[in-house]
Amino acid sequence: xxxxxxxxxxxxxxxxxVAMGFSLVYRMTRVLxxxxxxxxxxxxxxxxxxxxxxxxxxxxVILTSSLAVGLLMVIVDRLALAPAYRRSGVAATVxxxxxxFALQNGxxxxxxxxxxxxxxxxxxxxxxxxxxxxxxxxxxxxxIGSIGIVILTLFMTRSRLGVAMRAVAGDPxxxxxxxxxxxxxxxxSFFIAGALGGxxxxxxxxxxxxxxxxxxxxxxxxxxxxxxxGLGNLPGAVVGGxxxxxxxxxxxxxxxxxxxxxxxxxxxxxxLLLRPFGIFGEEGIEEGR
Length: 289
Fold this sequence. Notes:
Elements: H1 2-29, H2 36-53, H3 58-87, H4 89-111, E1 127-129, E2 132-134, H5 136-158, H6 160-170, H7 172-177, H8 182-204, H9 214-229, H10 234-254, H11 260-274
Helix pairs in contact: 1-5, 1-8, 1-9, 1-10, 2-3, 2-4, 2-8, 2-9, 3-4, 3-8, 5-6, 5-8, 6-8, 9-10, 10-11
């Protein structure tokens, strides 16, 4: 049981990072960014080029990949998404689905259709710790992801930009009246969501096969994790991601692994029937409060 719990929490960090990007963008713009998983995919491929082909240091790969994906999302927001969600959040949400396919096709043109294997960075040989086998690569994923979450939390609560983002999320009209640049602040939310996806992609790359379609399933599960925690709630996104990873691992370990997705999503449906707005969600968020 301890082995299963540890493995579930470690892998749940990937879902948590994607879910935070979902929740942040939704909180700021009321747009569901269904390209979130493909941002992770793009971050993984950019990391592959920098680490394997250009032989950059891994920390530089993480920073550059997150910055590149974040800047891409700012450009997409300014050119395509912002005009759409000013008229309708539904139109912008549909636009993100088109963005997901564009990212997949662009990655296929640049990196090809075959999967790429990212070499291990911290080691894939399990190490026994108090009777539990720990894979160093997974521990690194969890620790670096946790650092990113802490930095984002401090940014949102302690910095002027973070406070401005919270003000825009709460009442964009009042935020504009006190001098906050609402459009620029919303673009910042897309940058952060893209950066989180880039980080998650680089961290996940050494423990999976990089394919241009890998982001579809990860994006859906990140969205589900955000729903579990409460769409728009950042701490809830982290809890939802870790809980989803734990559920997947428990079902795979104690039941038939082929049933994992079906049973996990059935459990999620029950959870959302009991608490439609998620564990930490609020009904008011749907009304923009």
